Structure formats: C-alpha cells, structure tokens
Amino acid sequence: MNNTNNIKRAIFPGSFDPFTIGHYDIVKRGLGIFDEIVIGIGRNATKKETFPIREREEAIRKIFKDEPRISVQIYDCLTVDFAREVNAQFILRGVRCVQDFEYERNMAEANKSIGGIETILLYTRPEYAHISSTLVRDLYSYNKDVSAFVPNHLH
Ligand code: ADP
Q1: What is the 3-state secondary structure (H, E, C) of 43-85?
Q2: How far is the CA of 121 from the centre of ligand 1 (A)?
Q3: Does pLDDT of 43 surpass 80?
Q4: Residue pLDDT, tens place only, 114-123
Q5: DSSP label of 152
Q6: Does residue 128 line the site of ligand 1, with CB under 6 A?
Q7: Please, are residues 18 and 154 in contact by the beta-carbon 8 Å criterion?
Q8: CA separation for the pair 14, 104 (Å, rounded)
Q9: Per-residue pLDDT band at 126 (split at 50, 70, 90)
Q10: How many whole angstroms separate alpha carbon 106 and alpha carbon 112?
Q11: What is the pTM of this model?
Q12: How confident is the model at residue 140 (pLDDT cuts 50, 70, 90)?
C-alpha cells in the first residue's frame, strides 16, 4: 500500500478475540472519518487466545468482504511499527468507560511520542458499552448463545 494520494488511512488494532458488534460499530463509524481502515489483529504471546488468530482474521474478512476500504492483517510487532508498515497516519480506538479512557490516553501518548502517530478515539454507543470480547468468551465457554453480541455474518 502506498500513500501518494493523501489517503487518510487508520489502523484499528486489537485482539478481537472475538470481534464484537461494538468493534463493528467503531469500524463502520471510522469509515466516515478515514478513507481506509486496516484492522490489525495483534498477535500477543502473553495473552491466551480463545479463538485461533487465523479464524479471527478469516471471520473479520468475511464481515467486511463487500467493503473495499477495509482490510484485515495479523501483526506481531509494535502497533506504531505496524501503522508505519501499512502507511497509516492514525490509530482508531473505541472508548467505553473511564477505565478505557485512562488506558487509551496512556497508549495514545506513548504512540504519539514513539511513532508520531495520532490516535482518534470514538465513544461507544451506550447500547454497546457493556459488550466486550471477555463477555462473549465467558458466555461461549458456558455454551451460551452469543449471537446478540457478534456481527450477523459470524453466525
Ligand atoms: P485490546 O486487547 O487492544 O484492548 P480489543 O479487541 O479488546 O483489543 O479492543 C479493540 C478496541 O475496540 C479497543 O479500542 C477497545 O476499547 C474497543 N472496543 C472494545 N469493545 C468495544 C465496544 N463494545 N464498543 C466500542 N469499542 C469497543
């Protein structure tokens, strides 16, 4: 990917284990701000995964298969290095609550000073504020129906 035409490109980094309707909403709204969004699934050796990373990648690709402005990639480097690799000038993240805010502020400051990358935060819609990958994983581990929390395309 090159960036010769002043394309505004953001990465949306996360674990997405699994990708929820909260994530989906942030990406869709991000398309109103950015020309292109690269969803980056971070490979994190210390976090135990529930859904294999290749399955997550496949599932997210399927969700956005008709949206040419969105692409999906797995990465295992620093987030700012991934942003640079795909020629993104921005990091897109979602904020649900005060705890998210504190965390995101630290990350945004770090990523700005390490990599010169700006972070753009979108507030979660109130109806999605309680939805997290952790919640979906917990329900899933007890064989509960998770279809209300993941995009339609995943079930
Ligand atoms: P990470 O492990 O990096 O926190 P996640 O996959 O949990 O990755 O989340 C990726 C991004 O999506 C984060 O910015 C997070 O705050 C945001 N996010 C998670 N759940 C929601 C939600 N329900 N609504 C909006 N944003 C969300």
Answers
A1: CCCCCCCCCCHHHHHHHHHHHCCCCCCEEEEEECCCHHHHHHH
A2: 11
A3: yes
A4: 999 999 999 9
A5: G
A6: yes
A7: yes
A8: 12
A9: very high
A10: 10
A11: 0.93
A12: very high
- CB of 26 within 6 A of ligand 1: the answer is yes
Would you say residue 155 has pLDDT above 60? no
Site of tokens 């640079």: 84
CB of residue 124 inside a 6 A radius of ligand 1? yes
User: Mean pLDDT score of the chain, rounded to an integer?
Assistant: 94
Q: Is the pLDDT score of 2 beyond 80?
A: no
Please tell me the chain's helix, strand, coil percentages from 3-state DSSP, rounded to the nearest 5: 40, 20, 40
- Answer for the pair 115, 83: CB distance below 8 angstroms, yes or no: yes
Q: What's CA 144's distance to the chain center, in Å? A: 24
Question: Separation of 66 CA from ligand 1 center, angstroms?
Answer: 23
Q: Which amino acid is at 43?
A: R
Which residue's CA is minimally distant from atom 5 of ligand 1?
A: 14
87: alpha, beta or left? (left if phi > 0; alpha if psi -120 to 50): left
Q: Using the mean position of ligand 1's atoms as its centre, give its distance from the Cα of residue 154 in Å.
A: 18
Whether the CB of 117 sits within 6 Å of ligand 1: no
Instruction: Give residue 78's identity as a one-letter amino acid code.
Output: L
